[in-house]
Amino acid sequence: KIGNKNVELGEGDVKGTRVKVSGRIHRLREQKQATFLTLIDGYGHLQCVLAAGDLTKTYDALTFAQGTSLTLYGEMRKVLAGQQAPDNRELHVDYYKVIGRSPSDAEAITNKVSKEQDQWESSMLDNRHLVLRGDTASSVMKVRSAVEWAFAKAYKEMQFTKISPPAFVQTQVEGGSTLFELDYYGEKTYLTQSSQLYLETGIPSLGNVYCIEKSFRAEKSLTRRHLSEYTHVEAELDFIDFEDLLDHLEEIISKVITTIMDDKEIAGYIKELNPEFKAPTRPFKRMRYSDAIDWLNAQDPPILNEEGNPHVFGDDIAEAAERRMTDIINLPILLTHFPVEIKAFYMKKEDADRRVTESVDVLMPGVGEIVGGSMRMEEYDELMEAYKREGISPKEYYWYTEQRKYGTSPHGGYGLGLERFIAWICKQHSVRTCCLYPRFMGRCKP
Ligand code: 4AD
Ligand code: MG
Fold first, then answer.
1. Which has the higher per-residue pLDDT, 76 or 221?
2. Quick one: which of 97, 6, 73, 92 has its CA closest to 43?
3. Nearest partner of 371 among 337, 332, 429, 323, judged by Cα
4. 174 close to ligand 1 (CB < 6 Angstrom)
């Protein structure tokens, strides 16, 4: 593999290790004295040199193109002083075999630029299978893989148990308007919006639990942070209070960032994608919703609500206002205590102010909300009332409600949108480039 650093590099009369390496041509430069290839194999980039002559005059060499897959044999050498190549080494090829040719349009496809942003994006997404071979897309995917692993590592260290809730469900979690409904052997069923309710049923016997699963939302608007199918990192913590939940959120986010930044390869990708990225320092800024409303109105000029008026208590802080706020404050924010009316049915109310919930959104600069969480209602009667308020039929929720009958507990949890987290770390304009094949309204291919 290209990433293998266990090879002696030749220099002067000293012979370097002879290697065999397989990969695809990423870049191609033909010069009088040699042909230079940059080879990729998913583990790195390797500069390869074919001295002009027999090696470069074959039909295979004359038809080299971006994407051509081949196996190369030769000696690894240090690059000459004053020249540059990945890891300062190059493969001096003495023999090769072409495995699969590639048409010469691959480069044109992956670099296609149109003046129309929409058209450009649409063609990039139609060709996502090829775009994924590019440096940016593959770096984002490497970071994403590292982040998923870092979450698993952090949860393991914190003694959380991983569980795998179902995707076919008959209960909504985050409101009826974004449900994907389907026919399940004749029964009305949905694709899950969140695994939260199922996680809550895990805590009595498993302790704190987490899952990394897909969630589905029929989002009927096209924004740069909404997908129809996204990866949801969710956790549920037992016998905690709201402060514990906020502390835990800071801790898990900090742990994950530390893990990925300690990995040289991953830190390198992040540096390329987002040179200004800095690990956030604890404690994060904490702000109550009501103070955020005052803050928005106090800006000069004020940041207005969706109707173009100053914000009042009870307004949703819409995406645009939220983004302005995070961009100005430019720090991670734990925004807490949202009004009951704008939050989900299961959220516990604050004792001191019954108009608000013990809820939290984590906001990041450049993206806005990346986490939504809360303490959950513990009391049976209160929950029954909440179903009524929301017009939810309690029947399908019997298994969730019964948690309150069979030994209830103060508990809470959260969900983190993995693509939004990646967009923040990798400074991506949209969550669409933070998944392998994005799904959103109007796109279900490739
Ligand atoms: O705020 P949300 O809707 O909260 C929940 O689903 C809770 N039940 C989670 C829990 O407590 N276990 O979603 C949580 C996060 C959001 O903050 C956002 O990052 C992400 O999920 N998210 C989306 N990401 C991409 N596309 C969408 N359509 C998303 N909807 C939510
Ligand atoms: Mg939310």
1. 76
2. 6
3. 332
4. yes
Q: 308 to each of 300, 311, 320, how far by Cα in Å?
A: 15, 9, 12
Taking the C-alpha atoms of residue 24 and residue 99, their distance in angstroms, rounded to an integer, is 9
Q: Is 234 touching ligand 1 by the criterion CB < 6 Å?
A: yes
**CA 117 to CA 120: how far, in whole Å?**
5
What are the residues whose beta carbons fall under 8 Å from the beta carbon of 162, sequence distance 6 or more? 152, 155, 209, 210, 211, 212
- The hierarchical CATH code for the domain 18-104 is 2.40.50.140
Tokens encoding 102: 């590639």
Cβ-contact 74, 19 below 8 angstroms: yes
Return the amino acid letter for 263.
D
Among protein residues, the one whose CA lies closest to atom 28 of ligand 1 = 226
Q: Which of 80, 98, 97, 96 is nearest to 88 (CA)?
A: 80
Summarised one tens digit per residue, pLDDT across range 365-421 is 999 999 999 999 999 999 999 999 999 999 999 999 999 999 999 999 999 999 999
Report whether residue 413 contacts ligand 1, using a CB cutoff of 6 Å.
Answer: yes
| Domains in the chain: boundaries | 18-104, 129-434
Instruction: Please provide the CATH number assigned to the domain covering 129-434.
Output: 3.30.930.10
Respond yes or no on whether ipTM tops 0.90. Answer: yes
